[in-house]
Amino acid sequence: MATTTIRIDHDNQTVTFPETEVSDELVVQLFDDTSAAEREELYDDILRIGAYAHLEDRIGAFLAKTAERIGGEFEYLKLLFEARKRSMATTEKGAIAEDDVEQALKALVTDRGWEDSIVPTGNSGGELSGGTNKTGDLLACIGGVDGPRLVLEVKFDKSINLGDLADAKHEQNRKDTAWSQLVEAAANRKAGLSMIVFDKGSASSDIKKKVRDVTWLPGAGLAVMVDPERGDYRNLEVAYGFARALLLATARPELDTELLSVVVSRALREVQRCLEAQGHVDTIVGSACALLADLEQSNAALSSIQELLETVDAEHPLTGKDLFALHEGEDVRAAIDRVEKELNDLVEKRLSEVS
């Protein structure tokens, strides 16, 4: 595009662009995934965001550094992220959430060597409303298809509050609550226990206040908070293991259910304490890793400076090339990459030992 074809009207504070054609793959992909009615607004957003990014040195430096380290893979990652973000803002969100939870449970079952069956049921009717009620997104059969049944309802949105036994859906303006969904799901899927899974990023303030990790809703079942943006389903894994053990225990006729409820309450309290402690440990480990990475970077930089100074004397003066090499910091970058890999390997090894 010739620069003379771009006209600026200072009086009206506007810029006029001519018709143009762009062959960039990222641009084509972005506009192709956007409806025709929204493309003009998207075009305006891109111009504005691009202008901010170009004028903002920090953003420019970040993009330059990122491009230098991972190049074209970053562009592909951005495309995937944008596609995922757009999907999570549409009707596809429910299906994606259910699939994520299903895959997390199947991975857990495989890792533990259990024979549990995990089946998606959100698109099929159950026992209620003449077989048309679809409440209950996943059904887990403990030990196989004939074992005790755990039903899971996945709610990754802000449209639901926790609720309690006192709520009555037939009253005017009453909506579904987590409590009512748990009760309904259990009845609809003929399950001995039900669980509802929330997303930390989109749950209502009411849910976030009352469900920090795993919470027991008396008379209903378990409420679990996960963090899919970080790929963190540890709370779900803990809750599923707890629910599984509870279902296997209640299947034994010789157990007193009242005594069992006391044990369940105590066990759940300890589960919550363990999850809180794990969160504190994760924070401490993350901070320690960041400090170690900073120390390694400083040590590597000091080593490079020391090596440079040792080569400087009357016959070998400091040159611009030496300063440029120091500025580039190849040794420092190599040390950062190495220590990051070592720390990540150490953390992964520790987590695998704990699990």
List keywords for this structure.
single chain; 355 residues; 3 domains; six-stranded mixed beta sheet; two-stranded antiparallel ribbon; 11 helices
Please explain how this structure is put together.
This protein is an alpha/beta fold. It folds into 3 domains: 3-88, no CATH class; 92-255, no CATH class; 281-354, no CATH class. Helices cover 56% and strands 11% of the residues. The protein is built from 11 helices and 8 strands. A 6-stranded mixed β-sheet has the order 3-4-5-6-8-7, with helices on both faces. Strands 1-2 form a two-stranded antiparallel ribbon. Helix 8 (234-250) packs antiparallel against helix 9 (257-310). It starts with 6 loop residues before the first strand and ends with a helix. The mean pLDDT is 76.
Q: For the report, how would you describe the main beta sheet?
A: 6 strands, mixed
The arrangement of helices and strands along the chain is: EEHHHHHEEEHEHEEHHHH
Q: What is the SS-derived class?
A: alpha/beta
Residue fraction in strands: 5-15%
- Calculate Rg over CA atoms: 28 Å
* Unreliable parts: none
Tally the helices. Answer: 11
Neighbour order of strands in the largest sheet:
3-4-5-6-8-7
* Fraction of helical residues: 55-70%
